[in-house]
Amino acid sequence: MSASFLAGVTAGYGVALPMGAIGVLIAGLSARTSLRVGAAAGLGAATADGVFAAIAVAGGAAVAGVIAPITVPLRWAAAVVLLGIAVMTARAAFRKPTAVDQRPATPGRAYLGVLGLTLLNPATVVYFAALVLGRGGEGGGPLFVAGVFLASASWQLVIAGGGSLVGRWLTGPRGRLLTALLSSLVIAYLAVRLLLPS
To answer: Running DSSP on this structure, what letter comes out for residue 101?
Structure first.
C-alpha cells in the first residue's frame, strides 16, 4: 500500500473518530428511520471530509489563510443550524405523527443535509492542510484523499449501523421519545460548545 494512502487513512480516522454533533445526528437518523438513511447521512459526512482533504492537498496554506478570517461566522452558522436541528428533533418527539410526518426521510435528503452541515466546519480543512504541509507537501495527492474518504466513510457507517441496531431495540413510542430528546440535547450541547472559546 502506498504511504500517501495510509497517511490519508490515518488522517481520515483522526478527524472522523471523535463523536461530535454529526455522529450523533447520523446515529439518531439511523435509530429513528433506517440504516439506509443513516448510511447515506454518514456518506455525506465522509464526502465532506474528502472534499476538505482535496482542498488541503490542492492549496492547503492558501485556503487556510482565506478561511481564517471567517472561521467565527462559520462556527456561528454551524451552531445555529445544529440548534435548529435539536429544536426540530425535540418538537417532533412530542407530536403525534400525521400523514405528512410519516413521509419517510430519504437517503438523498440525508446525504445532502449532512454534507452541507459538515461543510460548515472549516477546522477540518485546516486540519488536513496542517497534515499535508507538515510533511512538506509529501503524502498528499489523490491517494491521500481516497484514504481520507474511505476511513471516514467506514467509521460513519459503523455509527449508522450502531444507531440502526439501537433503533431496533427502541422502536416503541417511549423509546423514540427518549432517543429523540437525548439526541436533541446532545446536539444542542455540541452547538453551544462551538460558540465557547477553546
So the answer is: T
What is the average pLDDT across 75-101? 71
Distance between CA 23 and CA 48 in Å, rounded? Answer: 13
Q: Could you tell me if 163 and 57 are in contact, meaning their C-beta atoms sit under 8 angstroms apart? A: no
Instruction: Report the range out of 6-10, 92-96, 164-168 with the highest average pLDDT.
Output: 6-10
CB contact at 8 A, 152 and 10: no
Is residue 44 within 8 A of residue 114, CB to CB? The reply is yes
Cβ pair 29, 179 in contact under 8 A: no
* CA gap 75, 63 in Å, rounded: 17
Which residue ranges make up each domain of the chain? Answer: 3-73+94-171
Closest CA to 28 of 92, 115, 112: 92
Tell me the pLDDT tens digit for each residue of 178-188. 767 776 787 78
Comparing C-alpha atoms, which of 159, 126, 141 is closest to residue 38? 159
